[in-house]
Amino acid sequence: MNIKKRLVKNFLIQKILGFIAAIYIYFVSITSNIKHINNSIPEKYWKNDQPFILAFWHSQLMMISFSWKNKKKLNILASGHSDGRFGAIIGK
Known about the structure:
This protein has helices spanning 3-9, 11-30, 40-47, 64-67, 82-91. The chain is mainly alpha-helical and 92 residues long. The chain is elongated.
């Protein structure tokens, strides 16, 4: 494995890059106009305090936390692959 791959898969490096990515995503969220489609569907579940599954396309995954309007805990399913781990680090 080359040095670049080894660095990117290093847990500490992932934590640092995750922090930088989280700052970038926050910046994007405050400078973007987020459009919610079919918002009435999750609103019904939030109002009735019922669990549900919310799906996002890959290109919008990092914006999930800015679309979650409820104070309840949000659980995200991610793979154990380094990409999934990195996304989980950012999502924390």
